[in-house]
Known about the structure:
By secondary structure, this protein is mainly α. The protein has helices at residues 3-38, 46-65, 72-79, 83-95, 102-113, 120-153, 155-161, 180-190, 227-231, 236-251, and strands spanning 216-218, 223-225.
Amino acid sequence: MSKREKRYESERESLRAQMIENAAEINRLHRRVHETFSGTSTAENSREEWSGACREFHDRYAQLCIPGGWDSSFMDRLKVGEFHTVEAALCFLEVRPYFFRSGYMWKDLLRKCKRVRMNEEQASRFIALLERHSEWKTNRDAKARRGTKVRNNLSTLFVRFERLFPIHFLDSDLDGINTVGDLYGTLCRKLKLEPLKKPEVNDGKARKPYSPGKLVRFPSIGLYLSETHMLSSWNAADGWATLVATIRDVYGAGDELSIGAQTMLPITRSD
């Protein structure tokens, strides 16, 4: 590798690292908006703090989401194939940072880069990226098909989940679910909780279905927030207790039937 190539690779690594750091900062700002909206903030004037959090998120988002700023100027430079802008776009596609609306950005950049003039090295990286993306889509679709079978097999249970847990299961999320423990682990991941290693021996409270309430739109930050969702404070023990109680209700299983992490789904009874 020549000195020039080494310098470019060093710059790319620095750019990728910056994107990861920026994504973490966007996520911090985004969480702050939710925290102040939900009333978990300890500030006396929570309304002003929430407005300030929204304003900071809105003001910093465009500059943080991609080096150079996500605006029409960036797109104009990308369209004509400006070297550093193409590098930023390719690094973003390679890193795939996760933050609010990053998925839409990723898809938009992927589509636009297909029509962008690149040098040989950049074109080679983009072709490799497209190949990886195609393989990922093939695997995703296969997982979704397998997950659809799980959803159909447990359809009554998942109908209950729609008004019970403040989450949405994708078909791909359900791939590989065979036991109550498998479902519990997936549920915890969706609720962003660390699952209990032995959930059966922990005390938890089975929760009742929630009312989603009205979603409120805040145009300045492009967010829809539901107070009910924000006030949801799930823990791993309650998640297990609610899951087991729902399974018992759906399948008519009384308390005499032991349900543990290794219990196979769907529940069958031998009367």
